[in-house]
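Subject: sequence -> structure tokens, single chain

Hey, anyone have a minute? Need the predicted structure for the following. Not urgent.
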Amino acid sequence: MSSTSELEYDYVPTSNSWAAPGSASRTKVELVPYLRDILVPAADPTNDTTSRQPVVVLEVASGFGEHVAYFGQQLPSVVFQPSEAQDECVRGIAHTISSTNLDPRSNVNAPVKLNVLSPASSWRAALASGNVADPVTVILAINLLHISPFASTQALFDRGSQILPRHGKIITYGCFKRHDEFAGPGDVAFEKSLRDRDDRWGIRDLDGQVVPEASRHGFKLVKVYNLNSNNLLVVFEKQ
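Reply:
Had a minute. Here:
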């Protein structure tokens, strides 16, 4: 059996993975206070601009860019690099960024094409093709783990272990099981709808699947935020 570093580049998401209309608008607003708490103190711990350590966030599976454009507006001290595996989404992100009233010295870079399952060398090449002046310190994945094969979860932590520095973070958002239990009947129905769309998809068990996978690649679970509709914002840190 191949290791996660050798996972084949054999899954490319299609339009059936796109978020339901309106969901990004709700999620982006809800996430900003939590992301500010996680990212901004690290970006500027003393408010001394001479000692500021830049926080550069690679967002994987950025969709059409509604999240990242809003995050860029709300968190101007953080640099965001959006990415997507689908050409249509890459074009959509570029359009969203260009039509958003961002500062001319925008902290949101042009999108790059990146499939999470591609090897680490492709991640580095994608970043090199962008406008990332500083090393990536955070990887952000919103609604990825349950709307993709589990191999994407494995690749996220494997590639993250190769890309991120020590104390770098992987932040994931979405629905999860806890100790193999669904959060409620709504998640049971959602699980069925996911499996009906693609039997490789499904709500991951944070404790039994995701945390052990993260640990295998040197990441420690450091924070779980309970958000609306039984969703979780989960923060891992590279040890």
